[in-house]
Amino acid sequence: MADSFLKIMDDSAKAAIFTKFKSYFGLTTQSTDIVFAPKGVCQRRIAEKRGSDTVEFISLWRSGIGFDWNRGNMSLARNGVSLEYSLPDYTAILTAKAVPVKITYDVWFWSRTLDKINNALETYLFWRHDNPNLVLNYLDTYPLELDLLFGDIVDESPIDQEYDKGLYFVYRMPITLEGWVFSTFSSKTILDIYVKLYLREGTPPDQVDTLLDTFHITSTSIS
């Protein structure tokens, strides 16, 4: 089964976030240095990936999804848009319907060094002025540019547990993706149109020919 477009957007957001911030924490490998999970299980998940209990990593989780009424194109959702015809006989057409959605991700930076997080936070704050979007290809063919929106940073560091679990810092940053959810289907195309013309009795043949040429009619049955 092919991946849903929601999963494609999740994976793309994960890759973009890792690429943007990995250098601040000395991270190199996406498979072991970033985890897609809720905050409460992130440390367990990253330990399973690495085989040890460490803190320097990035995590994210899709925390919400909703219809984007500001981009609510009802025609696109109800009627769709034609993408391509089947070849060589053009007997079917590929049509896509789409609804606009806002997908909210929570991103966490985990580190034992507060200054590493501070440097990453500064980049996060400037990101909105540095081409903040994801570029994806729908069906590997049709390019989409999805905008990213940003919110307030929240300190979720467990400082009160310093003497029980050790000192480390956790900061959460929301990122909202203005995405789309697609539905694609094939429908038959109209190849022939049959037209019945009623002509006034005694119409000259040359006028009949002119009329047929105007409507590009190639065969007739006139009685």
Mean pLDDT: 84
Q: What is the overall silhouette?
A: rod-shaped
Secondary structure: helix percent: 25-40%
CATH class: Alpha Beta
The portion of residues forming beta strands comes to 25-35%
Please explain how this structure is put together:
With 223 residues, the protein is of the alpha+beta class. The protein has a single domain (5-188), classed as 2-Layer Sandwich (STM4215-like), CATH 3.30.2000. It is 30% helix and 34% strand. It is built from 7 helices and 8 strands; from the N terminus they run H-H-E-H-E-H-E-E-H-E-E-E-H-E-H. The chain has helices at residues 5-21, 30-33, 39-50, 74-78, 114-127, 162-165, 205-214, and strands at 34-36, 57-67, 81-85, 92-111, 133-138, 142-150, 154-155, 169-188. Strands 1, 2, 3, 4, 5, 6, 7 and 8 form an 8-stranded mixed β-sheet that branches. Helix 3 (39-50) links the parallel strand 1 (34-36) and strand 2. It is rod-shaped, with a radius of gyration of 28 Å. It starts with a helix and ends in a 9-residue tail after the last helix.
Brief summary of the model shown:
With 223 residues, this protein is of the alpha+beta class. Helix content is 30%, strand content 34%.
Secondary structure layout plus pairing:
Blueprint: H1 5-21, H2 30-33, E1 34-36, H3 39-50, E2 57-67, H4 74-78, E3 81-85, E4 92-111, H5 114-127, E5 133-138, E6 142-150, E7 154-155, H6 162-165, E8 169-188, H7 205-214
Parallel strand pairs: 1-2
Antiparallel strand pairs: 2-4, 3-4, 4-8, 5-6, 6-8, 7-8
